[in-house]
Amino acid sequence: MGVALLGTIAWGVLYLVNMHVTGTWNDSKEEYIAEMEQAKADVAAFVAKAGASVDENTVTVTTDAGALAAAKETFTTYCAACHGADGAGSETSVGPNLTDAYWLHGGGVKDIFKTIKYGVPAKGMISWKSQLKPNEIQAIASYILSLQGSGGPTQKAAQGELWKDAAAPADSTVTMADTAQVAMND
Ligand code: HEC
Question: Confidence class of residue 75 from pLDDT cuts 50, 70 and 90?
Fold first, then answer.
């Protein structure tokens, strides 16, 4: 038997033992796939935790109980001093009532997110984007919206405009006028 043939046989035996008996080479492939899956999961978890994908254009209301409970604590720590512990303010509070339907800077979740993120520095409402992560701002904006209508008898008087959701159907007067216009043109 030539050396080359012996070598081939030796390789074949090694191959068979590894592939089918101990499964060593299979394992390393499966391990690689498992590691890749884990890496993907880690990245997804990081992005979710950092809330890196949430901004004032994409934010939606969260109903996650854990996030809202954490937001309540954040509100107590950072916001209650000016907006009241219940968010409703009082006649002497610095910040406006956040529980009524009137808003200075818009009452949609995107507006509220934006106000918290960038603040209204000239009017005494600071920007919170260096203290709070985007997902924390999302949670606190959602928490504020959950307080709608909860203000008690000592709540601060309304300021700003009565908020109408831009997604709500158009004003009925306009619709009727438009309909009349169409009818006249017919
Ligand atoms: C130092 C006082 C102060 C603190 C602390 C403060 N705010 Fe404000 N906030 C204000 C004032 C004053 C305004 C009104 C700004 C204006 O007149 O345009 C305001 C406005 C707002 C508005 C807009 C209300 C509207 O009618 O459009 C939101 C929402 C808000 N604050 C949320 C928060 C949140 C959330 C926190 C805590 C992370 C916070 N604020 C902390 C003073 C404060």
Answer: very high
The best mutation among 56, 99, 125 to test binding of ligand 1, ranked by most ligand atoms within 8 Å of the C-beta, falls on: 125
Q: What is the pLDDT of residues 2-36, one digit of tens each?
A: 666 677 777 777 666 666 666 555 567 788 888 88
What dotted CATH number matches 65-162?
A: 1.10.760.10
Give the separation between CA 112 and CA 83, rounded to whole angstroms.
Answer: 14
Q: Tell me the pTM.
A: 0.72
* Protein residues whose CB sits closer than 6 Å to any atom of ligand 1: 78-79, 81-83, 94-96, 98, 103-105, 112, 115-116, 120, 123-125, 128, 140, 144, 160
CA distances in angstroms from 104 to 111, 159, 171, listed in the order given: 10, 6, 21
